[in-house]
Amino acid sequence: MAFVTTAEVCDANPQLILSGELRALQPVFQIYGRRQVFSGPIVTLKVFEDNVLVREFLEEKGNGRVLVVDGGASLRCAILGGNPVVQAQNNGWAGIIVNGCIRDVDEINGCDIGVRALASHPMKANKKGMGEKQVPINIAGTRISDGDWLYADTDGILISRTELSV
Hints:
Oligomer: single chain
């Protein structure tokens, strides 16, 4: 999709909004990383205070995908840090959405990748490898499925069941 703002996408697609094909996440995420505008097909992950599966995904080739992590909205520790974000950038991920906390903000802000998270936190996550890959998740008031498309800019984050062309 050529660069258009999320507001323009909403204005151009009232029928998709009405049908639920196009949804906006509630505005609860902070913006991190140098890439403020990004989009791509979604890969979902559900974890709680554990970052092993997050790191495993980001070690794979991203191919322009966006990792959306339901971290249970925990504010007790960070499930994403600077090293995995550098690896994600180098592996071609377009972005990462974390329904939870991140750490190493200065390092993340130096990366050319889009990152959204609830907050930053200095404590590390557990390393048990618990979680579910590529399952439907519910974050910021929206159900997201593996394979949906995400569009993010400084106005917000949109989720679409299909790739949009404007």
